[in-house]
Amino acid sequence: MSRNQNHTTTPKNTLKGGLKSRHLTMMSIAGVIGAALFVGSGKQIALAGPAVILAYLGGGILVILAMRMLGEMAVAQPDTGSFSTYADRAIGRWAGFTIGWLYWYFWAFLMGWEAYVAGQILHGWFPQVPDWGYALFITVSLIIVNFMNVRNYGEFEFWFALIKVIAIVAFLIIGSLAVVHLWPWGEARGVSQLTAQGFMPNGVKSVVVAMLGVMFAFIGAEIVTVAAAESADPAREIIKTTRSVVWRICLFYVGSIFLIVCLVPYNDPLLSQPTHGSYNVALSRLGVPHAQAIVNFIVLTSVCSCFNSALYTASRMLYSLSRRGDAHRIMQVTGRRTGTPYVGVLVSSVFAFVAIWMMATSKMDLYDVLMQATGTIALFVYLAIALSQLRMRYRLQAQGVELTFKMWLFPWLTYAVIVCIIAALITMVVEGTYRNEVAYTSLLAGVIVVMGLVAQRWEIGTRRRGLQVSGAPG
């Protein structure tokens, strides 16, 4: 009996699904829109100048290719474990174990940071309650949402995402009017800032460093392949959302960043300040009243959405790991009525409570240091996707399986993605800006690999001992 057969779920421990097409559509949009766009992009603009457009374009192309590869595998074999399951099947158990736990760690740890940001914003508005009190309220509220049927999670994400989409569309309209000199307020006009101080004022190196930072902003696009397994027609939903990732990245990221660098000097000191950010600075220069309050509301919505998605994704990854025997079997226990893996939800929220405790005891700086271990997990995920797709495609072709959704220009674009990711990791180490992130993430990955290999050897030994006792041939 295989490992997967030993750890299959019983009927009472099965995800019941319930996500609708409109939920998945909005979730696929929300996956690539977060606080990294509204606030974090300002730091990249200040670093690379207007040429930051190239950084976002380069990072976006990498994500589009990774999503196409993931879509090919997910359409052929939909699974709530997504790329972790495919790495297990295509590369080996240690790979699925490692990338699954790394991904879980990323989202579980990110929840603590999102709770912190939400607490800071709410405390700024209503200082009567400490920031950790608001963070605790947000955390408990979204845990309750994830305890309910997955349809409730889909509804919350739908409305969270809709707010973000409306905000970005409004910004694109206002910014476009200002670029063509039709916006009557504010001081920002035309495209003069695009070349006023040079398109690439800090050289090619700054664009490369910015692109490395930009790649982290896109992680989340792959969540839809996890969620699609809980829909009525996973293959159709994955094809639709994977195809739409192209225009989503081009419009929401490249489009809005283009407008910002046209209207705002790249060396505006407010751009790189976390209390302001690119959208706030741009809206202020456009004469929009209460720009900071508006952006703070959008960021609050974004971090709540990200927390909600992170908790959902982390709990489903634990569920999948448990099904494959790579996590304790209790992680796949689901509610009798809701079909939600509530144990996985509780375990996944542990770092959020750690962050709240650190906020209450003024030790949040330590959490910032620990966050560095998540720095390059996105690149490890994309690398696992590329390697898995490469091996799985050859395997399926050998079996005569006809794929309905394929990666472009296989295998050349797949090899190109692998080379680019490895080159990016090497550049991070050599250049130095993200050296700690690479080191800490690699150390964490190494520890998880060792754990996976030990677990694999232990299971093989147990199986052999069982065969010897039963007298079956080894």
Automatic annotation (TrEMBL):
Keywords: Membrane, Transmembrane, Transmembrane helix, Transport. InterPro entries: AA-permease/SLC12A_dom (IPR004841). One of its GO terms (cellular component) is membrane. Its main location: membrane. Pfam families: AA_permease. It is found in: Membrane. The chain crosses the membrane at residues 21-39, 45-70, 91-112, 132-150, 162-183, 203-224, 245-266, 293-319, 340-360, 366-387, 408-426, 438-455. It is a multi-pass membrane protein. It comes from the Bacteria. Residues 23-435 form the Amino acid permease/ SLC12A domain. One of its GO terms (biological process) is transmembrane transport. This is GABA permease.
